[in-house]
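Q: what sequence does this backbone want?
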């Protein structure tokens, strides 16, 4: 029995050592304090930043509180797979809340300001003539393949 408990303990320690933490860091914390994200379903993480002052707020998402793995904006409102520009949210109402959902494996991001979607990037993978492709869905409902808008009708 003691041997089984030792093995279980070793497995749990290995799992916890390999666990990844995703967090939000930005101008609202002086770029000094990470806000850890909570896993809300399979590989989707959530964080909120509350009581924001009026102004432009920048942030990034990073892994394990380290800059080695971080995600930002690619300059067109899409999330990058690594590094990139800061995400920017303009707050016009004192005491506002930013809510962020992030799926690192794709990557996908959804940013809401006071329950209104500001940015949402959703990737659809599909196969065309044996080749994989990605379609990006924007908040305005339009879908893009690379820089080309596509119709789904």
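A:
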């Amino acid at each position: 029995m003691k041997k089984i408990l030792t093995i279980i303990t070793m497995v749990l320690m290995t799992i916890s050592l390999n666990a990844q933490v995703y967090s939000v860091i930005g101008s609202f914390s002086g770029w000094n304090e990470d806000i850890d994200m909570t896993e809300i379903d399979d590989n989707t993480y959530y964080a909120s930043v509350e009581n924001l002052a009026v102004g432009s707020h920048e942030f990034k998402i990073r892994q394990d509180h380290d800059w080695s793995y971080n995600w930002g904006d690619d300059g067109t409102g899409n999330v990058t797979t690594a590094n990139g520009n800061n995400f920017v949210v303009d707050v016009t109402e004192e005491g506002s809340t930013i809510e962020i959902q992030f799926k690192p494996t794709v990557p996908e991001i959804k940013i809401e300001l006071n329950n209104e979607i500001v940015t949402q990037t959703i990737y659809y993978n599909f196969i065309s003539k044996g080749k994989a492709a990605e379609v990006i869905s924007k908040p305005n409902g339009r879908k893009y393949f690379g820089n080309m808008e596509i119709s789904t009708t």
